[in-house]
Amino acid sequence: MDNRRDFLTKLAAASAALVPVRTFSFAAPLPRPVSGSAVEPMAEDAAQNLRGGALYRSPKTFFGADYYPEAWEESRWPTDVQMMREAGFNIVRLAEFAWARIEPREGDLDFDWLDRIVDLLWKGGIQTLMGTPTSQPPPWLYQKYPDLYPVNAEGIRYNFGGRYLYCFNHPGMAEYTRKIVSGIAKRYANHPAVVGWHPDNEFGHVARECYCKEYCEPAFHKWLEARYGSLDKLNAAWGTSFWSQIYSDWSQIPLPRLTQQQHNPALILDYRRFWSDTVVGYQKLQIDILAEIAPRQFTTHNLWGKPDYFAMARDLNVAAMNFYPAYGWGRLEDNGLELDTFRGLKDGNFWVVEQRGGRPGSHNETLESAPGLLRLWAYQSYAHGADAVIFFRWRTAARGGEEYWFGLLNQDGRPNRRYRELAGMGKELERVGKLLEGTNVVSPLAFYVDYESEWAKTAPDVRAFDDRRADYYKAFKRLGVNIDVTGRGRDLTRYKIVFAPMLYMVNDDMVEQFTRFVRGGGTLVLTFRSGVKEWDNSVTMQPLPGLLRDLAGIEIEEFEPLLKMDPELKEGEMPLQGVAAPFAARASAGTIWADILEPKGAQALAKYGRKFYAGKAAVTLNRVGEGRVIYIGTHLARDFADALAAWLLAPHRIVPPFAVPEMVDVSYREKAGKKLIFVMNFNNTAQAVRLPRTYRNVLAERDVAGSVLIPPRDLLILSEA
Ligand SMILES: [Zn+2]
Predict the structure, then answer these.
(1) What's the gap in Å between 217 CA and the centre of ligand 1?
(2) In the CATH scheme, what is the code of domain 2-436?
(3) Mean pLDDT of successive 10-residue segments in the chain (721 residues)?
(4) CATH 3.40.980.10 fits 445-652, yes or no
(5) Which of 143, 275, 698, 719 is least enclosed by beta carbons within 10 angstroms?
(6) How far, in Å, from the CA of 240 to the mean position of ligand 1?
(7) Could you tell me which residues come within 8 angstroms of residue 157 by beta carbon, excluding any fewer than 6 positions away?
(8) What is the pLDDT of residues 140-175, one digit of tens each?
(9) 561 C-alpha vs ligand 1 centroid, how far in Å?
(10) In angstroms, what is the span from residue 321 Cα to ligand 1's centroid?
(11) Separation between Cα atoms, residue 330 and residue 470, nearest integer Å
């Protein structure tokens, strides 16, 4: 608990400082020269900025692929490098799965092949983001440690064959991690082609959770002892008196393995916290080694799975993500919020280290990207703050795991439609990349996310809960607004509006954070099922919305889900009647949930129209100091969500560049107040956008104004004069 508080304090201080405070030693030896290189080593100030941490901005725009040269004949490598050059690539990620190739037998390190490909790429003008190869240990390590395999929640130990097969708490893994990470770090710490480090791969992947009795369970007990101090406190906080669970010794406390009916929700949440801290700790083991041996290079990692991303990102210089836009797995347009989330982790630009390069999944699971989409998604990454887009992967595997997780090239290795599309983009980036340099995304509005609150929603009694935050996100995006993602400990006062959907579990620090923001003139929006739980995962004993009650100016005595089975509702839709701006005299419908709101100082904006709570408030406004708190007790249909979004912006004088049609994403980056605007049409039909002023059309190299038609799956890039 203390560590978390410490982290928040540091995070708040870092946010407040607004400039990178890290200093670096340049005492390391100079980069060794590579003859015939097409790329100059980076200037020191640029290199320092690259490792910048908060407000990170890359000194240049990167474009490239994840490359697995170890899977192909070496005679093919020059062709690959030549094709990458022709596509305008300037970066690859290498080696995160190459441990067994680098160290085929214990202590027998072979970097020669890696040297050869790094140098070959470098001569072709392509730099390397070097992976540490710990994603999967080699077979010999399991002969040494048969208990290295993680144990799943059913208590079954995995066998060799997959990936990510190690327990983070295994002491042998820590020892061999130090050896291999130090080895590769020493080899490439001063190589001018190696721009940074990518420890491992997807540390947070859910398949990596371990429930072993040998290492994870005792570590969990220690973690609990540090958090609670005494078993009396733990028993009280968890409510172990019910179902006869009172613990009299730490060793009695289980990991949440398979049990009959369900585990205690507090145990589940604390396991999630413990697991996240475990992952953060193992990542830090690697980062500390890299920082010591390779201080000139930055660290990044593709955050994935269930750890606290804010905590993971704290130790990295740059946040990174995998971006596999839904196309077969979900809706095509639900991508912006995901990108904005990763930008929010360090309040600055980020890297996409796995961008969809071909069809993900198995061969019959996802749809082919129609012409234009791969390019459009890649631009969407840049538009939302990526400084690097690295496609997964260069060439689809002909052998081994994930043989149908397609990359840019098919197994045949020939230029294809996907390659040609992105090579065309590479040409465009010769100009667009320069314009992106030094720009950041600036937003007047933020969505608030808290990972511990999200984990609390995963308890068995909560069941899957769709908070539909993306619907509100899209309502704001249609108006053309940039949106940040923020969280606990951050300074909210730089925003005009903070949207905090379904903040299920809250603590006093969050209430203080919100109160400061609202009193200073901000608008806070809360939605149903907020403030239900307190920080020990107990249901609040205050009237709902618990700790948020005074801010919202309401109380909630009764609530219910809006179910399709309800005979009083048609398809589960609750009629809503607007009674004040922005809904005055308008009718709509709510779905999913109904919090029956009793105003205690707040004013009703809309009321329920049916059932025993007809006439009771559904949406309220509370004025606090200079600011406003909106509480939405149900899920608003699109007409009310749109009306609310426009009405919220108005008093803050937020004037976005222009509004856009459905499934058109407008996002902009800026430098010195000048915007570079990306207008991306994800529709299969052309869409018209009305420009309120003259812009430079960057791709067409001419000025544009008035109504502009964007072809299907295409974009406009506009710069302000
Ligand atoms: Zn374990």
Answers:
(1) 7
(2) 3.20.20.80
(3) 41 34 25 34 43 51 98 98 98 98 97 98 96 98 97 97 96 98 97 96 93 98 98 98 97 97 95 97 98 94 94 95 76 80 95 96 87 96 97 96 95 98 98 95 96 91 77 94 96 96 97 98 97 96 98 98 96 98 97 97 98 98 97 98 97 92 94 96 96 97 97 97 78
(4) no
(5) 143
(6) 25
(7) 147, 149, 150, 151, 212
(8) 999 999 999 999 999 999 999 999 999 999 999 999
(9) 39
(10) 26
(11) 13
Q: How far is the CA of 152 from the centre of ligand 1 (A)?
A: 9
Q: Which two tokens stand for residue 350?
A: 């980020």
d(CA 382, CA 371): 19
Please list, in sequence order, all residues whose beta carbon lies within 8 angstroms of the beta carbon of residue 59, skipping any fewer than 6 positions away: 42, 43, 46, 47, 49, 50, 437
Query: Whose structure tokens read 């887009």?
Result: 389
Cα end-to-end distance, the chain, whole Å: 51
The pLDDT assigned to 363 comes to 84
Which residues have beta carbons under 5 A from ligand 1 (an ion)? 167, 169, 210, 212, 215-216
As annotated, the active-site residues are: 202, 354
Contact 390, 96 (CB under 8 A): no
CA of 159 to the centre of ligand 1 (A): 14
Looking at the structure, give the CATH architecture of the domain made up of residues 664-719: Sandwich (2.60)
SS3 (DSSP) at 45: helix
Query: Alpha helices of 479-633 — where are they, by DSSP H?
Result: 508-519, 549-552
Q: How many other CB atoms are found less than 10 A from the CB of residue 155?
A: 12
DSSP 3-state of 58? coil
Where are the domains positioned within the chain? 2-436, 445-652, 664-719
